[in-house]
Specification:
The protein is an alpha+beta fold. The protein contains 2 helices and 13 strands. Helix content is 16%, strand content 38%. It starts with a helix and ends with a strand.
Length: 167
């Protein structure tokens, strides 16, 4: 092997080690400001200010199938997958002119939703085989069984809240 090939391989290995050692920064949510300036120019009214965060879903490990004695298929056959996301803080604010009929009472109305974690689980499927395990009393031939079919309901767990304010 030539010296240049060894140097290229060494440089490649160094880059791969550096990339593997660096832990990527994972954002909970990506902040987004919604541009509404076109509303002001088009309608001639002050546009509200809207800022929110787009959630970045993180997929967890699927639920491992479990085998039960006497069943040919694992339970659940279609595993449940957890997905977590942090809903970013959202704020909508708009000017409220002449609140009490006088210009001195101009204020601002706002609707705020603090950041919260939302956890979901996908639906799963439980399917039973139409045959039993081999039966020794029936010369090793499996018996017919009543087929089973079931669904694991999806879950949504979270506590989103909102605050309405007027200043």
């Amino acid at each position: 092997m030539k010296m240049t090939a060894r140097g290229s391989i060494a440089a490649l290995m160094t880059c791969m080690a550096a990339a593997g050692a660096a832990s990527p920064a994972v954002a909970d949510s990506v902040p987004v400001g919604v541009p509404l300036e076109a509303v002001e120019t088009t309608l001639g009214v002050p546009a509200p200010h809207l800022a929110t965060g787009v959630p970045v879903p993180l997929v967890g490990a699927p639920e491992a199938p479990r085998f039960h004695q006497g069943d040919l298929l694992p339970t659940p056959l279609l595993p449940v997958v957890p997905i977590a996301a942090d809903l970013g803080a959202t704020r909508v604010a708009s000017a409220v002119p002449n609140l009490m009929g006088e210009p001195e009472t101009d204020g601002e109305g706002s609707l705020e939703s603090p950041a919260t974690t939302l956890i979901t689980r996908t639906p799963g499927a439980v399917v039973g085989a139409p045959l039993t395990m081999p039966d020794a009393s029936n010369n090793g031939v499996p018996n017919l069984a009543v087929p089973k079919l079931g669904l694991a309901a999806p879950d949504v767990i979270g506590t989103p809240t909102a605050l309405l304010g007027l200043r």
